[in-house]
Structure formats: structure tokens, C-alpha cells
């Protein structure tokens, strides 16, 4: 009991430091809810067509990432270093090394995102998608990915706080047959 009381006291003493930026008024559903944002993050943020303007992580994905936070946890197994990144700019370095090598990247959702509130100011969503990557050189790749995002309510709305993406190869037929 003593340890619980000490932990609670510590949490309350330090809560104002992080709670000042935490909001609790982000939409639970609709176009600005976590589920819709997760879907748009894949279908808009990461979709690339041949002839698109040069990739710019900050510009192309600003709607979903908080570029002012230094306490993020962002991971994708596409990262050659397999590191957890703590800032959006550091995470962007992974993609600046990869996306320019792609002619196009097209996605199809195979499991719609479901979002659940996990506490005041936080929401969690998971979705699965298949995607087709056409490199500028080499063979077309087909992958299936599961992504899990913990969203934090900020003054600018929901932003990605914790992200984990894992992909594995799949067949062209799996991509073609996805809705």
C-alpha cells in the first residue's frame, strides 16, 4: 500500500508538467476521429502515384505527426536500423531513405481501423492493409502490414504518439483480391 501511495503521489506531483499539453476534447468519431485518421494516414499520407511531387515527410504527413514532441515511440520494420524513433523528424529520415526509391505505392485496407479510448486524451487504433510497391528499379513487391497507433489529443487534434508497423511479403493475388 505504501508503494501505491508513493506512486500516486509522484504521478500527481508531476502530472501538471505533461498534462498542460494534453487535451481531452478530440473527436471520438467522424472524419477527425482516430479511426478515420488512421485510415487516411495510410490511404492519403502514404499513397504515392508515379509522377507525384517529391516526397516531403513533414509536408506530406504533418496532419498525423507531431513535429514538436520529443517523447514519441515510432517504429516500422522497414527501418533498416530497426530503431524506435522518438521524434517525427528522426522517423522521417527512415522514409527519406526509402520513398524516393519507389515509383509508386498503393494500398488497400484489409481490416478497417477500430479505435478505442484508452484514457483521457488518448485513443488506440489498429488496422491491416496490403500494399503494392513499384520501385524505380527492380521487381514489384506486395506486402501485408498490421499497424497499431496510440493517438494523443493535442491542441492540433489527434496526433500519433506511439506507432508500430510490421509488414511481411504477400502475393500479387492477395493485393489484387483485396477490396
Overview of this protein structure:
Keywords: Signal. It comes from Pseudoduganella lutea. Residues 1-19 form the signal peptide. InterPro entries: NTF2-like_dom_sf. This is SnoaL-like domain-containing protein. This protein has 179 residues and is α+β, with helices and mostly antiparallel strands. It has one domain (22-177): Nuclear Transport Factor 2, Chain: A, CATH 3.10.450.50. The chain has helices spanning 2-19, 34-45, 57-61, 88-98, 172-177; strands spanning 73-76, 102-119, 122-135, 141-154, 157-169. It has a five-stranded mixed β-sheet with strand order 1-5-4-3-2. Strand 4 and strand 5 form a beta hairpin.
The CATH class is Alpha Beta
Quote the average pLDDT.
90
Low-confidence stretches: 1-20
How many separate domains make up the residues?
1
How much helix, percentage-wise, in residues? 25-40%
Give the number of DSSP strands: 5
Supply the number of helical segments.
Answer: 5
The value of Rg in angstroms is 18 Å
Terminal CA distance reads 53 Å
CATH topology description: Nuclear Transport Factor 2, Chain: A
Strand % is 35-45%
Q: Main sheet: which strands, in order across? A: 1-5-4-3-2
What shape does the CA trace take?
Answer: globular
CATH architecture tag: Roll
Query: Structural class of the secondary elements?
Result: alpha+beta
Biggest sheet architecture: 5 strands, mixed
Please provide the ordered H/E string of secondary-structure elements: HHHEHEEEEH
Organism: Pseudoduganella lutea
Protein name: SnoaL-like domain-containing protein
Keywords: Signal
Signal peptide: 1-19
